[in-house]
Design a protein that fits this description.
The protein is α/β, with parallel strands linked by helices. It is 20% helix and 21% strand. The chain contains 5 helices and 7 strands; from the N terminus they run E-H-E-E-H-E-E-H-E-H-H-E.
Length: 225
């Protein structure tokens, strides 16, 4: 999993006057980079104060793998029906028991609901016309399907373990013709993972932002310092 909108907080002495972002980046970049560090109220908690999380999952849909996105996207070689995937996403909206899409904590009973409220679940195709594509060799005269980078954005108040990856796995099955919106509805109603595909690979997942009730997402508000 990756993150471009992760938020963290740290308690610092009141007398600290250094450039925290620069100091951290000097030690951790380029693998980890702090984009901004700003003061916030003492009762701010990066995790508990959050009111929403925005995750994004990328799928590289092409018969041929793409080494330039291999670490960021799940390669699915067979053609996917984007409209079917979008239709299967609709039942996710609203408040539901997501036990069928979550890896339960060992100390939690299987009968305990895992209720989450999803406010966005949307697929779109990102045009594969970046600079690296323009420099690639010419495509065959009649390729079976143009390559596509598919993007799934999902926003909820909170998520449980493996929830996004499990959802993506079912929605990709819908794109393959193996599942429908009715499948998603049945899983939500059943509350069990039996019969669900394995979660999508972790490397396609990215935390895009964290909301704190004021329209701001991660990267726009920092921790306590």
């Amino acid at each position: 999993m990756h993150a471009v909108g992760q938020v963290a907080h740290v308690d610092l002495p009141a007398t600290y006057e250094g450039d925290l972002a620069r100091a951290v980046n000097r030690q951790l970049s380029p693998q980890i980079v702090v984009r901004a560090a700003v003061p916030v109220p003492l009762d701010f908690d990066a995790r508990r104060s959050a009111t929403s999380r925005h995750y994004r999952y990328l799928v590289w849909n092409s018969p041929v793998p793409n080494p330039l996105v291999a670490g960021l996207a799940w390669h699915v070689p067979e053609p996917l029906d984007l409209k079917a995937m979008a239709s299967a996403s609709d039942p996710l909206l609203g408040e539901h028991d997501f036990r069928a899409f979550c890896r339960r904590a060992p100390d939690r009973p299987p009968t305990e609901p895992i209720v989450r409220r999803v406010t966005r679940a949307r697929w779109r195709a990102v045009p594969a016309t970046a600079d690296w594509a323009e420099a690639a060799p010419p495509a065959p005269p009649a390729p079976p399907a143009p390559p596509a980078l598919l993007r799934f954005d999902v926003v909820a108040g909170s998520f449980c373990h493996q929830m996004v990856r499990s959802i993506v796995a079912v929605l990709v099955d819908a794109g393959r013709g193996r599942a429908t919106a009715a499948t998603v509805m049945a899983l939500l109603a059943a509350g069990v993972r039996a019969g669900s595909p394995r979660p999508a690979p972790a490397h396609g997942l990215c935390l895009v932002g964290v909301g704190y009730g004021d329209g701001a997402e991660g990267g726009e508000r920092g921790g306590r310092a």
